[in-house]
TrEMBL record:
Alphabetized UniProt keyword annotations: ATP-binding, Coiled coil, Kinase, Membrane, Nucleotide-binding, Phosphoprotein, Transferase, Transmembrane, Transmembrane helix, Two-component regulatory system
Pfam families: HisKA_3
GO molecular function: ATP binding; phosphorelay sensor kinase activity; protein dimerization activity
Keyword Transmembrane helix appears in the UniProt entry: yes
Gene Ontology CC: membrane
Chain segments annotated as transmembrane: 7-23, 29-49, 56-72, 113-132
Protein name: histidine kinase
EC numbers for this chain: 2.7.13.3
InterPro entries, per the entry: HATPase_C_sf, Sensor_HK_TwoCompSys, Sig_transdc_His_kin_sub3_dim/P
């Protein structure tokens, strides 16, 4: 706003100076001097960011214009409207009131000055109104942007705090799981081994005097050891996740990470008994899915990619299909070749189709 106000005032100053020079005014030197003082006062008003100082400078500038036009050159009065607009805008918000107040000097001006003053008032009002409205909108947008930036910073801070909390929670859960495992092993194995050791120590002492008693004690130690080993086996079996759960969770993590990082929806579906899929087959499925998603990101220019697993009677079928640009003539890159080699190692097959979008299908035979 300040820049356009200065430009407008410079235009008015040049107009007054040119008019005086053209009509060869007797006080041209003094007029130029007054115009320079007026310009310096306005620069001071714009330099200081304090609202109070600016109001004071604008007030004295208005008085200076009124005094100089009365004493020196009446044409200086055309500088007054813009100064009044700036000064009164701090107190009056309605534009029509500003225009009405700035037109009041018309009542006391000479007939020869009313038209120039009216034109100056009209021009100054239009420029001031446009600049003031634009500045107001710009300030509003800037405030909104600052608020959005603060919200983003707050959300980022909360996200970081949540991530730290999640990591701490995961670490705590691991510690709790380790503690639970340690306690269960201690309860199941420790007590059994201690009991078996006591039985064997007792058998050692009575072995020479009562062989039958020693045999019974050793048999008790064997039974206690077997029970302890079986208890530990059941504990470890209950803790170990199923193969299909491990593979499925790893695949879901891969797909979710791809979708959230790159903003491409990746719906995942599966059908059939996933227990039939072996750990090696899960490894190939996950690696082929990762390679296919990488190719989608590089070449497909797709907006969605679908992943589907079906466990059929004879084989497992994995399909990764996108809605991208496809490829009429297939050129196998290192990614596709690597997928074929991994799949062939398990006696499987890769089928690639680029006619409608791009799809990669992995077929792995099930163990009979």
């Amino acid at each position: 706003m300040d820049f356009w106000m200065i430009i407008t005032k410079l235009i008015l100053i040049i107009y007054i100076a040119f008019t005086n020079a053209y009509f060869q005014g007797q006080d041209l030197g003094w007029v130029i001097f007054v115009l320079l003082i007026y310009f310096c006062l306005n620069l001071l008003a714009y330099i200081f960011h304090s609202t109070t100082i600016r109001k004071v400078m604008l007030f004295f500038t208005a008085l200076f214009i009124i005094l100089c036009q009365h004493v020196l050159d009446p044409s200086l009065i055309i500088l007054l409207p813009l100064c009044l607009f700036e000064l009164m805008s701090y107190y009056i918000q309605k534009s029509w009131v500003l225009l009405l107040v700035s037109c009041l000097p018309e009542l006391v001006l000479k007939e020869s000055l009313r038209i120039p003053y009216g034109l100056s008032t009209s021009l100054s009002f239009v420029i001031f109104y446009l600049v003031f409205t634009h500045t107001k909108k710009l300030t509003l947008y800037t405030d909104r942007l600052d608020k959005m930036r603060q919200d983003m910073q707050r959300l980022t801070r909360k996200l970081n705090e949540n991530e730290a909390y999640i990591k701490q929670s995961e670490y705590t859960l691991k510690l709790e799981e380790r503690n639970r495992l340690s306690q269960e092993i201690h309860d199941s194995i420790g007590h059994s081994m201690t009991g078996a050791l006591i039985q064997m120590e007792a058998a050692k002492h009575v072995m020479n005097t009562d062989k039958e008693k020693a045999t019974d004690l050793l048999q008790n130690a064997i039974n206690i050891s077997k029970e302890g080993i079986e208890s530990m086996r059941l504990t470890l079996k209950n803790m170990k996740p199923e193969t299909d759960q491990m593979g499925l969770n790893r695949l879901r993590l891969l797909i979710d990470a791809f979708s959230s990082k790159h903003g491409i929806p990746a719906p995942f579906t599966h059908k059939g008994n996933l227990d039939k899929i072996t750990p090696l087959q899960w490894k190939v499925i996950i690696e082929n899915t990762g390679e296919a998603l990488t190719n989608v990101l590089k070449y497909a220019n797709a907006t969605v990619v679908a992943i589907d697993i079906q466990v059929l009677n004879k084989f497992v079928r994995l399909e990764i299909k996108d809605n991208g640009q496809g490829m009429e003539k297939l050129k196998k890159g290192l990614g596709i070749v690597g997928m074929e080699e991994r799949t062939a190692a398990l006696h499987g097959t890769i089928i690639v189709d680029g006619s409608k979008g791009f799809s990669v299908t992995t077929l792995l035979p099930l163990a009979t």
